[in-house]
Design a protein that fits this description.
418 residues, alpha/beta, 5-stranded antiparallel β-sheet, 17 helices, 12 strands, 48% helix, disordered N terminus
Length: 418
């Protein structure tokens, strides 16, 4: 069978000004290695977090500008995982792989493989097998790249229509399984992409459904990562829509927020944001109603150049949206020293930040003083600092000396639903 030629795939990238997404002990490109500090990983996460897996967490975490860099060793080698929330997401992905591997051993799955007429499936799989390296480099994952076929196929091959339908069906099946597993279908975790890809191909080619698969293994696994209500809603949207449809939905939401066409294009074309990360960020800002300055947040987010920084901006948006919904109305988002801050109706400014561990590292006090000076120039009142992780008592004291009224840690327990 002849594989159609004349295929077109469109990808774009954009620059970034955020801090690097790798620890000083592993990569030299971190901006200021002297600011990095090491702490026991148990200060941030449970010691037995990966006890039931084939993965081992290094006992030491590197903290750089309030973000944690963990070293995780598994069957495929070592990787650096940036942020505590991403570490929990990785645990969920590891458990998802284990569930999928269990699913592949069930009789219902084996029977589906035998019954499947796999000709269009095999051809479609061949179409997506060539560009794996390219896909990995842009952080999308092979499944994410092809979940909405960006091909213009020409020719008279009678199987072309079936191939296209099969490939699109693969994307939909993959998103459906990922949703039930509580993971991002566009994750750059290759073991997940491989495992979920095989299951999705079988679902397309045989009589095998999502409900059948999870019934066979006794249900869906529990997840370690908690999400906001809005984030869970956006995950459903990602499950039900192709990346092309998602982009249009996000584009319309950005326009409604007052984001200009050129800025919207820059943000939506930044492929460090996979479709789910992008959709959750836009959905969080959209949920904030008429809050002013959301275009400033998008302008800041458009500058990222690593998937880790994209996820940080997503978490930041979701955290601010949850605060707005549950704690106090935010009137405006401002950006001070590249950090989005929340200004409430009483003109009080709050730092609401997805920090893993606030430490009094070199440069910390200077940065906080610079932010405070800018706030006062705007004739705003400093308020509280809310962070998702821990806060070293010395860092809390410095923040209060600079002028912040109160520091609250572990706020994700309050703001995110289980």
């Amino acid at each position: 069978m002849r594989i159609p030629t004349n295929m077109m795939i469109v990808t774009t990238c954009i620059m970034s000004l955020l801090s690097p997404a790798v620890p000083a002990t592993v990569a030299p490109e971190i901006a200021n290695p002297g600011e990095a500090v090491e702490v026991p990983a148990t200060k941030l996460v449970k010691s037995d977090l990966f006890a039931d897996t084939a993965y081992q967490l290094d006992p030491t975490a590197t903290i750089y500008r309030a973000r944690a860099f963990y070293e995780l060793t598994g069957p495929t080698g070592k990787e650096v995982v940036v942020s505590t929330r991403q570490l929990l997401a990785r645990l969920d992905e590891i458990n998802a792989v284990a569930t999928l591997e269990k699913m592949e051993k069930t009789s219902v799955y084996v029977d589906a493989v035998k019954k499947a007429g796999m000709a269009p499936v095999d051809l479609a799989k061949n179409l997506v097998s060539e560009p794996v390296d390219t896909v990995s480099r842009i952080g999308r994952g092979v499944g994410g790249f092809f979940s909405d076929i960006g091909y213009a196929i020409a020719g008279d091959d009678p199987d072309q229509e079936n191939v296209a339908k099969t490939a699109v069906g693969f994307g939909a099946a993959k998103r459906a399984f990922a949703y039930e597993l509580g993971v991002n279908p566009y994750s750059d975790f290759q073991p997940l992409q491989e495992a979920i890809g095989e299951i999705a191909w079988t679902a397309v080619g045989g009589s095998f459904s999502v409900s059948m698969g999870f019934r066979a293994v006794g249900g869906t696994p529990s997840t370690a990562l908690s999400l906001s209500k809005t984030a869970n809603g956006m995950r459903k949207l990602v499950r039900d829509k192709s990346p092309r449809e998602i982009r249009k939905i996000n584009e319309d939401k950005l326009a409604a927020m007052g984001v200009g066409a050129s800025l919207s294009e820059a943000f939506l074309s930044n492929h460090d944001f996979d479709p789910e990360t992008e959709t959750r960020l836009v959905g969080a800002l959209d949920s904030m109603g008429k809050v002013a300055g959301r275009e400033r947040f998008i302008k800041r987010a458009a500058l990222v150049n690593t998937p880790a920084d994209a996820r940080m901006m997503r978490d930041w948006a979701e955290l601010m949206a949850a605060y707005h919904e549950q704690i106090q109305n935010i009137r405006e988002i401002i950006v001070v020293s590249s950090a989005p801050l929340a200004v409430t109706e009483d003109r009080v400014t709050h730092i609401i930040y997805p920090a893993d561990y606030l430490t009094p590292s070199p440069g910390f006090q200077d940065r906080m003083q610079a932010i405070m000076a800018d706030i006062k120039r705007r004739e705003l009142t400093p308020g509280q600092v809310w962070v998702t992780g821990e806060a070293d008592p010395k860092a809390v004291k410095l923040l209060q000396e600079v002028g912040w009224k109160e520091v609250r840690s572990r706020v994700d327990d309050k703001l995110y639903a289980r």
